[in-house]
Amino acid sequence: MAEFSGCESCTNYVYNEDYECYECLVNLDEDEFAKFMTGSLESCPYYSRDDEYKIVRKQM
């Protein structure tokens, strides 16, 4: 399966303890999944950088 570079730093990419592997929590629709599998999707539209200090900056 294709993988976007940078998935490891996305908030949607989490460890599944049942399957003992990492997976993406985003459910792609049929068109997005087809683009993902063929590699024609340039970047993930659901990418969200894992920024643990984001909430702290908002509180300041």
Q: Structural class from helices and strands? A: alpha+beta
Compute the number of helices.
2
Shape label: extended
Main β-sheet, spatial strand arrangement: 1-2
Low-confidence stretches: none
Radius of gyration: 14 Å
Strand content: 5-15%
Q: Helical proportion? A: 25-40%
- Give me the count of strands: 2
- The average pLDDT value, as a whole number, equals 80
Q: Termini separation (Å)? A: 41 Å
Element pattern in H and E: EEHH
**Main beta-sheet annotation:** 2 strands, antiparallel
Quick gist of this model?
The chain is an alpha+beta fold and 60 residues long. It has helices spanning 30-38, 54-59, and strands at 13-16, 21-24. The mean pLDDT is 80.
Please explain how this structure is put together:
The protein is of the alpha+beta class and about 60 residues long. It contains 2 helices and 2 strands. The chain has a two-stranded antiparallel ribbon with strand order 1-2.
Sum up the structure in keywords.
60 residues, alpha+beta, 2 helices
Per-chain topology:
Elements: E1 13-16, E2 21-24, H1 30-38, H2 54-59
Antiparallel strand pairs: 1-2
